[in-house]
Amino acid sequence: MDKFLIEGNQPLNGEIKISGSKNAALPVMAAAILTEGETILDNVPRVWDIRTMSFVLRTLGVRVEELNGRLKIIPPKLLHYEAPYELVKTMRASVLVMGPLLAKVKRARVSFPGGCAIGVRPIDLHLKGLAKMGADIAIKDGYVEGYAKTLVGTRICFKNPSVGATENIMMAAVLARGKTYIENAAREPEIVDLANFLNQAGAKIKNAGSKTIEITGVDRLKGIHYKIIPDRIETGTFLIACAATGGNLTVKDTEPENVRSLIDKLQKMGVKISTGDNTITVERKSRLRGVDITTSPYPGFPTDLQPQIMSLLCTCAGSSVVRERIFENRFTHVGELQRMGANIEVQGNRALIKGVHTLNGTSVMASDIRCGAALVIAGLSARGETKISRVYHIDRGYEKIEEKLSAVGARIKRIK
Q1: Residue pLDDT, tens place only, 226-273
Q2: What is the CATH number of domain 3-16+231-415?
Q3: pLDDT tens readout for residues 47-91
Q4: Domain 24-227: assigned CATH number
Q5: Is 242 one of the catalytic residues?
Q6: Which of 156, 352, 373, 384 has the most CB atoms within 10 Å of its CB?
Q7: What SS3 state is found at 133?
């Protein structure tokens, strides 16, 4: 397995181009099987999760061609309807093919999903929503099996906002009969991007990005040419990395408003930030001060940036409290940060952090995508050498992260 070797305590200076959003591209790829004809997607990141979804689509009979950040997706006239365990176990987003399959071929057999070990993340909201639209759902031998002679629009209210469930129901509803209303829907930018793709393909979706989404079913969708939005989590990761190491860094080809909650926190900590139409520049010259962080659904502070900002808080002056309200097991990075000298105490879903002056490099292990990113940030700011193992987790969500960081002054290399 590959490892990262990092010589820390080096400021980051220069520019980094942000890749397309993994979390936006995955549902759009699933939605492409709803269309008739050829769909071309631009600005698709070259990460392992995208490759996994490509494999899932191919098992359904979909033709997928990859070339330098562009995907060509051509559904067959007759789709297969089973997504096997061997693929779905590696990535939770694979379950997003269920809604499109029920809408397009009236059947779906999808293995229970896997992915990062950050919590249970049940798919009951997906299944209850699809059942309410008329699908017969059964669970057999680790697979979810669904059949729907006709999907019918209805009103679905989520107890808690769920990005995946909102996406799955929205994709099922675009070809359903009548109107579907999703109440307490997720509001993330990736939801809006999926709705924009579907609408350009001929769907009728209103109010994506609000608490209630309205979908009027149509008979068919067409293939289109579409560009995926920038990755807000990659954007935030690099902003935090510069705040941790010092220097002056500009991230470009991004969307500042999509990381507003992070920008506000960094400014309170003492980071100097300026924004343009599609750029964000961060500068840090002196020691930062701690702040409290509570994760919550968009537009709140994203759980996918919680591990990274905790790495930063470890060396801030004073004390900080991080509350994780999305996933029940998203503190797997704490033990590794403690190995590097961080002063962190976990109490349930809260982490109490007392800032130390510096972290010390050592051998650590990534347990999920964002934990891995947090350890990279810690290694970049630490004194001495840090060796990170199991970096395949990082490769699932970040495109050539070591090359992007090396180009702006980081001493990081991949060891085969």
Answers
A1: 999 999 999 999 999 999 999 999 999 999 999 999 999 999 999 999
A2: 3.65.10.10
A3: 999 999 999 999 999 999 998 889 999 999 899 999 877 777 667
A4: 3.65.10.10
A5: no
A6: 373
A7: coil
